[in-house]
Amino acid sequence: MERLCAVEIVADIPAQYRGTPIADMLEYHNLDRPYQTYTNSQLLIGMCMDNRKHLHIPDNFAYIIRSGGANLRYSEFKVSYAIGVGGVRCIALVGHDQCGMVNLVARRQLSSTDSLNMRDGRSRPPRSISTRSLRCSN
User: Fold this and answer.
1) How far apart are CA 78 and CA 67, in angstroms?
2) Paired strand residues for 62
């Protein structure tokens, strides 16, 4: 069964990520690991374009692609470059809760329905927000 898991100590990092740039990213960001110096990127990070979200990682540690909802669709060239030319070994998708860009098309369709419902005097259907995070299996 999958569940969200907090990373508060090194032992919280799932075994499959230990010894990888994913674990390094989690240690830098969550555990305030002292920064090392990097000359080449180790990781490609896809994350939301929300400018309030920041990662605590060293310079040159990762290529970062920011897009709505951390969606890498239409970023094929950038991903290919990071892997083929940049030599990254891992890709991390970092999301956050309450993201306004997740399920945007569905929300737009719901909004159209809401507009119709408002004109008809009916109540609005509830809106849902999707979230993504580190998933762990137990």
Assistant:
1) 12
2) 43
Cα distance between residue 136 and residue 133, in whole Å:
10
Q: Which whole number is the average pLDDT over 75-100?
A: 88
53, amino acid identity: K
Q: How confident is the model over 27-58, as pLDDT tens digits? A: 999 999 999 999 999 999 998 887 777 899 99
Name which of 13, 9, 22, 4 is nearest 88 in CA terms.
22
Lowest mean pLDDT among 8-17, 24-33, 44-53, 99-108: 99-108
Quick one: which of 131, 134, 129 has its CA closest to 92? 134
Least Cα distance to 102 among 123, 126, 80, 127 occurs for 127
Say how far apart CA 95 and CA 100 lie, in whole Å.
11
